[in-house]
Specification:
By secondary structure, this protein is α/β, with parallel strands linked by helices. The chain is built from 19 helices and 7 strands. It has 3 domains: 116 residues, Ribonuclease H-like superfamily/Ribonuclease H (Nucleotidyltransferase, domain 5), CATH 3.30.420.10; 137 residues; 134 residues, no CATH class. The longest helix has 37 residues. It is globular and about 80 Å long. It starts with a strand and ends with a helix.
Length: 410
């Protein structure tokens, strides 16, 4: 008789429940979150009939962690059940909404017993792809963290130092720019800027990596920082400066972390076999390409059709029909990381692909605003990416965006 395993995961221990085809509880246990606990889990599975020829499926509510990695290393099918879906299953068995760790483990095992076909196992990605995924997500998180810190610092500077913001308003990264951070470090307040000498500013620019035009930049910075502006009282201004210096130290660390992770991500991604195919697409460099690989993986069976990939990325619309009502809207339940990467990918493709630009312009001419047009372009690029990865061939502009036929143009 087939047996199914459900594990309710927690930080210190895990509740395990084994259920047979009839829904009868075969065994249960609470194991520790260490090697001894995993050994005990394997003993339970073996006693219930687990063997290499027919490994027992396991359901959890998380796709990550040491326990999941160890289970995947044994070659058994591991199902990561979405916690929201698990909550709906829980309501089937308890109207009173009772909840316990053991009951959740039984519920996860019953999900595999009754609805395993409605769920998918974790993809069998290669070790290299998993490493790229860890680094790419960490680098993406570091960039988001850096942006949040830069916005926080900018909001603080608006309170007492508007001249500084005006001086570096044209920088793409704003106050996170290396030159802006170097100048703020030596002139955290308008009073400090008034007493900052030219050699000190020049040394700050050199620390930021500037090698040319330093003297002219110093004069521009001195003039900008000393421009007439409203001022806080001296003591208050000094207090704001101390707060800005502390926040600047955190921002500097975040910028270094993002840069270091970017270098590590590029190196790991360059070693993956799909690197050449992914980076052949317009708008996809090493970092964005690594983020794409991190989310879709290299298990070719994960997305049998391009439609599956586009639904996962949230680029394809979803239809809601009931009776005479029928609406088509964009997806909100999606891989948010891949969707964010797709927005940047589509934007970058506009300047590097004539076909992508023409497709975007046609969508805008048809009434789409920027976001829907970009999402539609991302949808089109994903179709091409799925085909290229499946066939192992690089991007071809003429096949991805074929020119319109003469009869269509007429």
């Amino acid at each position: 008789m087939k047996v199914f395993c459900g594990i309710d995961w927690s930080e210190r221990h895990h509740d395990v429940a084994l259920v047979d085809e009839t829904g009868t509880l075969v065994s249960r246990a609470r194991i520790s979150d260490d090697a001894a606990g995993f050994a005990r889990l394997l003993e339970m599975l073996g006693a219930a009939g687990d063997n290499p020829d027919s490994p027992m499926p396991v359901a959890l509510e998380t796709p990550r962690g040491l326990l999941v990695a160890a289970l995947r290393a044994t070659g058994r099918p591991v199902y990561a059940i979405n916690p929201m879906a698990a909550a709906r299953y829980r309501e089937r068995h308890s109207v009173a909404r009772a909840k316990s760790d053991h009951a959740d483990a039984v519920m996860l095992a019953n999900i595999l017993r009754t609805d395993a076909a409605a769920h998918r196992t974790l993809p069998a990605d290669s070790e290299t792809a998993q490493a790229v995924g860890v680094l790419a997500r960490a680098q993406q998180d570091a960039v988001w963290h850096r942006t949040r810190l830069a916005n926080e610092l900018r909001s603080l500077l608006r309170e007492y130092y508007p001249a500084f913001l005006s001086l570096f308003a044209g920088k793409p990264s704003g106050v996170a720019d290396p030159v802006a951070r170097a100048v703020l470090a030596v002139a955290p307040t308008p009073a400090a800027a008034a007493g900052c000498s030219r050699p000190r500013l020049a040394a700050a620019l050199r620390r930021a990596g500037r090698k040319r035009g330093i003297d002219a930049s110093v004069e521009t910075i001195r003039t900008g920082l000393r421009a007439p502006a409203l001022r806080q009282p001296p003591a208050v201004e000094e207090a704001f400066g101390s707060q800005a210096s502390a926040l600047l130290g955190i921002l500097d660390a975040a910028c270094r972390a993002a840069d270091d992770l970017a270098d590590a991500t590029r190196e790991a991604f360059a070693a993956h076999p799909d690197h050449q195919v992914i980076t052949s697409f317009p708008g996809l460099g090493d970092l964005l390409g690594a983020r794409v690989l991190a989310e879709i993986g290299d298990d070719r069976t994960r997305f049998p059709d391009a439609r599956n990939l586009k639904a996962y990325a949230g680029s394809s619309p979803v239809t809601r029909a009931s009776g005479r009502s029928r609406t088509v809207v964009h997806r909100r339940v999606k891989n948010q990381r891949l969707a964010a990467t797709g927005h940047l990918w589509a934007f970058g493709a506009l300047t590097s692909s004539a076909g992508a630009r023409a497709h975007y312009d046609r969508r805008r001419a048809g009434g789409d605003r920027h976001n829907p047009a970009s999402r539609h372009l991302f949808n089109r690029l994903l179709s091409a990416l799925h085909h290229c990865l499946a066939t192992g061939q690089p991007y071809d502009e003429q096949r991805a965006f074929p020119p319109p036929r003469m009869e269509d143009a007429a």
